[in-house]
Amino acid sequence: MTAAELERYAAAVGELPILGNLVFFTVRERDYDRAKMTTLFTELGLAPELLPKPDTPLNAFRKACKGANEKIRYRYDSGGTAHILVRELASDNESVTRALVREVRDESNKRLSYDQVAVAKFSRPGVGGTTRLRLSIEPGTVSTAERPKVSEALDLIDRDFERFKKYMDSAKVRWMVRDYLRLLQGVPVRASTWFIHDSHSEELGRLRELLVRMGCEMDRVPLLELQETRSMLVKAVVTDTNEELEGVINDIVELRGNRTKITGAAYAKVKSRYSKALELAGQFTHWLGESMDAADATLEMASKQLAQLQKEMLDG
Predict the structure, then answer these.
(1) How far apart are CA 207 and CA 177, in angstroms?
(2) What are the beta bridge partners of residue 32?
(3) What proportion of the chain, given as a percentage, has pLDDT over 70?
């Protein structure tokens, strides 16, 4: 359905009673300026706690090194193809160091040689709170002919390091949108399609404005208050509730497998997920006037598991 068709549909719905909106969004594969998004969050009055966190300089360094691994390839002087690999070299409280290694392979992909040709070193924040990135070519291991290729690999790390500090990738923006739709008590109906109740339509409009101004897309299709739409939403809510409660059960199993003692913080995290699932199901029961009985079996199992986990925590 095109944007024009959506507009005509919304106009045709007019003043008819609606339950809410089906929501579709698209986040394109590119970098997003975090400073711009921060400004828009404030301007549009959106929930600041859902603004994506910036990459730390250390994470930016790690991502830049990972992205540079095997990006540079060239014909080696003595034959074969040289691949520039990025490998962990050292890490301590003061710095993290990656080695750039030249691996030469023949036509059958057999390794012919393996030599360190450069170093990328990230210094953690010192007393002044500043970080530093040092890039250097190893003396005596790089020929004049291949120096531009090794420098290209170092330049790639340097450029991406600065980029990751300033920008967010599309994955972070997608997670932000999904988290925000959850905040609006949204329920996934199908892949990439969410239902948002009409009581949240105003804030949903502000979220849409954010995405449009960031170069993304969000379309809203009003759902009429019909028995067919109610049945579709009940099915979606039951499926979502079951999945969330199964996630709670899996979290409890993992906790028991990984810890000798259940801490209060660990229990509280699981209990919060359980409570949010119940709250959402209860809210939709109120909105739709329909029972969510199909989720009762999973609810009973999760409730029993949570009660047992609480007992284990209290018993120490």
Answers:
(1) 8
(2) 168
(3) 91
Q: Whose structure tokens read 């530093």?
A: 132
CA–CA distance, 61 with 157 (Å, rounded to integer): 8
**Residue pointed to by tokens 């040689």:** 113
Return the exposure string of 126-149: e unless at least 16 CB atoms fall within 10 Å of the residue's CB, then b.
eeeeebebebebeeeebeeebeeb
Q: How far apart are CA 170 and CA 37, in angstroms?
A: 13
pLDDT at 248: 87
The torsion defined by the Cα of 50, 52, 54 and 59, in degrees rounded to 10, comes to: 120
Closest by alpha carbon to 148, among 120, 188, 118, 121? Answer: 118
Angle between helical axes of 201-213 and 34-44 (0-180°, round to 10): 150
Query: CB of 213 within 8 A of CB of 33?
Result: no
CA nearest to 84, candidates 106, 99, 62: 99
Tens digits of residue pLDDT in 144-163: 889 999 999 999 999 999 99
pTM of the model: 0.70
**Which residues, in sequence order, are bridge partners of residue 21?**
196, 222
pLDDT digits (tens, 9 = 90+) for 79-125: 889 999 999 999 988 899 999 999 999 888 888 889 999 999 999 87
Distance of CA 283 to the CA centre of its chain: 27
pLDDT at 281 over 60: yes
Rounded CA separation 230/210 (Å): 29
CA distances to 70, 167, 223 from 66, rounded to whole Å, are 9, 17, 45
Instruction: Confirm if 82 and 100 have CB atoms less than 8 A apart.
Output: no
Query: In the chain, at which residue ranges do the beta strands (DSSP E only) sit?
Result: 18-26, 32-33, 73-75, 81-91, 95-105, 111-123, 132-137, 167-168, 187-190, 193-197, 217-224
Tell me what pLDDT residue 290 has: 73
Q: How far apart are CA 73 and CA 152, in angstroms?
A: 10
